[in-house]
Amino acid sequence: MSRPLLETRQLIVDIAGQKLVDRLDLSVAGGERMAILGRNGAGKSTLLSTLAGLRRPAGGTILLDGDDAAALPPRQAALRRAWLGQFQADPFASSVLETALTGRHPHLGRWGWESAHDIELARRALGAVGLDGLEERRIHTLSGGERQRLAISTLLTQAPPLYLLDEPLSHLDLNHQMAVLELFADAARAGAGIVMVLHDPALAYRFCNHALLLHGDGRTESGAVDAILTAPVLSELYGYRLRQIDDGGCRCFIPD
Question: Cα(33)–Cα(168) distance, rounded to whole angstroms?
Fold first, then answer.
């Protein structure tokens, strides 16, 4: 059996002394898609940024492909995981293609330049999110949805085995939301591991195998979506009574 792409052992995440995640044991293998759900302020983004190595945990260990993530050099860690944040900062006026190509930086040597193969990978990634033909556009001229899709294409260009996605559907219309979720479902079918923060339990049920629920007080629940994404469990999580509707293999939740 292959090692998990991501594993946490007794992980503790806190902010200003308040525990948001208390002793979390988690495992994500290749091909798995895990949704993280919870109320605003429950710690979803904080947990994901901790998994991405952007903040230190208060306790416990994070393993990437069996190795302690804290001991990995940044370049090696970037070859094993990619992180999509909620907000995109663009201090320089680069082009769409130049931005997508930054995903290849972990694959290049200290003085290396992008090859024709790297450029082709970036162009394919841009095409996968519907940005083909915009390669020379300045990123400051893009809409919010276009900029989000560019960020996703940069991760696809990076081509890691593990994707950590913080609200990947932000700024996207319905058409592009479904296209992006299908895109990462395809990546999982090809062997990648996916962990993503979502706000819609119905989409989490449709596109993920497992779910992790954060209650914001240290308590967590995890399991297969069939078992954990139910009206009683989600009603407690969100503090509002929900009604569950199952239809044709899909499951949705509406306020009762």
Answer: 13
The burial of 37, by beta-carbon neighbours within 10 Å (0-12 exposed, 13-18 middle, 19 or more buried), is given as buried
Q: What is the DSSP letter of 91?
A: -
pLDDT at 3 exceeding the cut of 90: no
CATH number assigned to the domain comprising residue 207: 3.40.50.300
> Are 184 and 256 found together in one domain?
yes
Cα(222)–Cα(204) distance, integer angstroms: 13
Q: Is residue 186 part of a domain?
A: yes
Report pLDDT for 1: 56
Give the pLDDT of residue 4. 95
At 37-96, the pLDDT tens digits run: 999 999 999 999 999 999 999 999 999 999 999 999 999 999 999 999 988 777 778 999
Contact (Cβ atoms closer than 8 angstroms) between residue 96 and residue 136: yes
Burial class (CB in 10 A: 0-12, 13-18, 19+), 85: middle
Task: Answer whether 159's CB lies under 8 Å from 76's CB.
Answer: no
